[in-house]
Write a structure and sequence with these properties.
Helix content is 30%, strand content 25%. With 447 residues, the protein is of the alpha+beta class. The chain has two domains: 190 residues, FAD/NAD(P)-binding domain, CATH 3.50.50; 139 residues, D-Amino Acid Oxidase, Chain A, domain 2, CATH 3.30.9. Strands 1, 2, 3, 10, 11, 12, 13, 20 and 21 form a nine-stranded mixed sheet that branches. A hairpin with a 4-residue loop joins strand 12 and strand 13. The chain starts with 7 loop residues before the first strand and ends with a helix. The protein binds flavin-adenine dinucleotide (FAD). It catalyses: (S)-2-hydroxyglutarate + A = 2-oxoglutarate + AH2. GO terms for molecular function: (S)-2-hydroxyglutarate dehydrogenase activity. Keywords: FAD, Flavoprotein, Oxidoreductase. Its cofactor is FAD. Its EC number is 1.1.99.2.
Amino acid sequence: MIRNLSSASCIVFSATVPKPLTCVMRHAHSSTYDVAVVGGGIVGLASARELILRHPTLSFVLLEKEKELAMHQSGHNSGVIHSGIYYTPGSLKARLCVKGATMAYEYLDKQGLPYKRCGKLVVAVEREEIPRLKALYERGQENGVRDLTLIDSKGIQEREPFCRGLMALDSPYTGIVDWRQVSLSYGKDFQDAGGTVVTEYEASDIAMVKESPAGGTEGLKYPIAIRGSKGKEVRCRYLLTCGGLYSDRISQISGCSPEPRIVPFRGDYLVLKPEKHYLVKGNIYPVPDPKFPFLGVHFTPRMDGSIWLGPNAVLAFKREGYKMYDFDIRDVTDALCFRGLHKLVLKNILYGVGEMYRGVFIGAQVKILQKFIPELSLQDVLRGPAGVRAQALDKEGNLVDDFVFDGGVGDVGSRVLHVRNAPSPAATSSLAIAQMVADEVERRFTL
Ligand SMILES: Cc1cc2nc3c(=O)[nH]c(=O)nc-3n(C[C@H](O)[C@H](O)[C@H](O)COP(=O)(O)OP(=O)(O)OC[C@H]3O[C@@H](n4cnc5c(N)ncnc54)[C@H](O)[C@@H]3O)c2cc1C
């Protein structure tokens, strides 16, 4: 629990098969560092990379609780390089996505990492969706998304011969990539620049200490102690956390507010049988529901040649639980006792039940997908993998769509920074987010 950490300040900014990293070190050879980063997902890795490139003379460590990096959201997602169409013009999310996509393509080219710019169609299948599709086109233009055009049903068939629709937004700039592979590449850059990666280190306590590490002679140079669940301790001058599905709990152990709370939503994908791959060429998306822009099943080709359909979104009974029956008593109690979730459920009960129904009865999911590709049948699909989204919720049951940085006040406020919410598509935006996080670290800390 918290020691000498006074109450928190919270700032809201509006706004495959991957290669394992062979050079990951399992044990820190030194336990003191200038900067520690907790969380080896794409946000933590990109931020650690950016910081060490800006400050090559400082010592850095990245602590990750799993055996390998990027095992959660960054390794369980749709693998799309989004172009930034959906987000409110001028918002941080829109700017970071558009900039992040450009930076991602540049990075992938420079590193020689594989990706495909296979494009995306957002397809209106009902007449009443057309005004929303046109508004989306305007929005994309305002956001500076490249090469957007509106196409008619003939244009749709030229791009996707098996897709039916009245009108579509064509975004050829959208691509696909294996985001876990990209995350591991950021980790390699970090290590090549001298950073240390320690896996199987679960930060379970963050405290401000008053004495030097045993045998140390440097006084209070490293006053932040990050205690691991296996009894080890890492000391640092400054701490940044990027805990994904656990970002609220990590913030709480250093004395920050429990809100915004992370509520895990699992998304189950279906996969298209290989003999039916000819049905889909690029990404095919529905016109988003303005209430839940991140929902809506889509067709997504993968870098390994497979094609994923979905996902739905249902409340998960376990953070980082990828199977329908995965259950964790603390996660369930936390979620069920949270007033914000009660409000969200009450406001959207029908929607939630529909998502659960489609998760169990895949025929219902296929029925929705058939609106886009009528030739698709239940026999063409299999149950596929799942991902769990860290959805930040406030007390009133509102989805928190902005970036949330949280620190402490007093001594700790000048030494600890939590990235509590890095909303999707944080993989696409990761390099731009990393610049923003590094700017914030430099603004708060005297590195
Ligand atoms: C189903 C789904 C589909 C998506 N599709 C896309 C997409 O197509 N394109 C896109 O750009 N984005 C997509 N996203 C969003 C994107 O994947 C996430 O925004 C991004 O991966 C978040 O990265 P992160 O580093 O914040 O979290 P994570 O990847 O979850 O990383 C957090 C890390 O912190 C570690 N950790 C947690 N607690 C501790 C602790 N106490 N001590 C040490 N380590 C700890 C975890 O083990 C984990 O490795 C999708 C997300 C989901 C769920």
